[in-house]
Amino acid sequence: MTDGELALLLARVQFAFTVSFHFIFPAFSIGLASYLMVLEGLWLKTGKAVYFDLFKYWLKIFAIAFAMGVVSGIVMSYQFGTNWSVFSDKAGPVIGPPMQYEVLTAFFLEAGFLGVMLFGMERVGRGMHFVATCMVALGTAISAFWILSVNSWMQTPVGFSVGPTGQLLPTGSWWEIIFNPSFPYRFAHTVTAAYLTTALVVGAVGAFHLLRERHGKGAPSVGSDAPPPATASPHSAPHSQSARTMFSMAMWMLTLVAPLQIVLGDLHGLNTLEHQPAKVMAMEGHFDSHPDGAPLILFGLPNQAEKRVDYAVAIPKASSLILKHDADAPLAGLDTIPDDREPPVAIVFWSFRIMVGLGFLMAALGLASLVARLTKRLYDWRLLHRWAVLMGPAGFVAVIAGWVTTEVGRQPFTVYGVLRTADSVAPLAAPAVASSLIAFVIVYFAVFGIGTWYILKLMGHAPQPHDPGLADAPIRTAGITPASQVDRRIDPRPDVAEGAR
Fold first, then answer.
1. DSSP 3-state assignment of 160?
2. E strands of 153-275, at which residues?
3. pLDDT score recorded for residue 238
4. Which stretches does DSSP call E strand in 232-387?
5. Distance (Å, rounded) from C-alpha 458 to C-alpha 374?
6. 43-46 contacts: CB < 8 A, separation 24 or more?
7. Going by fewer Cβ within 10 Å, which terminus of the chain is more open, N or C?
């Protein structure tokens, strides 16, 4: 391996490492911002204190996750200007304006209303505070819109020409560039994945606290004849109500959205087959063409050197049935692609299976929760609660696996079919890239490791009915009832009303 090849490999590893860390936080904050909007809306509509308690609880976690997402995202622009400066120069005329629009719209919207959302409960009216929460949620969605538009254009480039200096210049309508062929599918699939990721985390936290209560570390479940444990606090009942509410809401999201995500994934896959067939060939492990129907390889060991999948476990003709909706439809294989245009098959093959497998596990958890709900066991089925806790990180693993499938499957190109990755890297020496990579690894694990540990610590505490962190100060804004002074008129149940005082 030459110094240039090593520098290219290290630059790719560095970008993959930093963007993987970064992707975790937006995937969580996009869904959590919308969840906070729903919680505050339900509180304003119903007046039930449990929704306000959950809003305060998740608001702290959102603030930390959002901050870490912003900080980790700054590194992306740094790398565009150093390790990938050639790519920035050549593709900048097309991808630069949309990324600038992301700053002018989403970032300014989030920054403008985030302070009101975090610190304005005692300073503005409830309506204005709810508007701020909605604007932050909208800002996260708009940010995803622009970033995914840019990424999708790199996957399915349209509306450009190659200039005399090798730059990619926009020639068509900007609408054509923004709404490129893969963008609608990628946007829907990715944002839905963010919602499922948040639902799994919220469900895991709710299930964790339900299990703690069942093991004597909280209140007994409602309907139980067991007396409260000696160590139970006066607020155990509101804690139980908060855990039940967040678990129920999360399971509804999984029940309804996980099957939808499978459908969206199928549509996205069909779109990829049309525009990036080599990626789908790698995902399926199809080294050879199949003129009479291709098998669905469930498991195996891709052997790119020998152009085969060793120890393959396959269902005959099932891949043609899924991809072409015809069991006998022919499917081309990697034998129709030049070797120097093939993606790394093993990575794409397994990352795709991890993503799909976790997606079906999410749908199965949602179905199990629906059965538990219908049989009145949603809050008492300990096996379901343990399963939900184990599935808590599954959304993060799935979105990273999906990102690996998308990005590695695009190789050896940064702009698919137009600009090779080897021609996009800056002329840096391997030791320079290696030193910055080591620095990133150390700093990221230290800074974001501590941040993640603190988020988990916050999740380990049950939501408090009387949280001094947000709404204890008297509100002097005209006509506004202090959120910390919610009385029995908000909820007639004595346990909830007492906890809200």
1. strand
2. 160-162, 168-170
3. 53
4. 296-303, 308-315
5. 32
6. 44/126, 44/127, 44/130
7. N
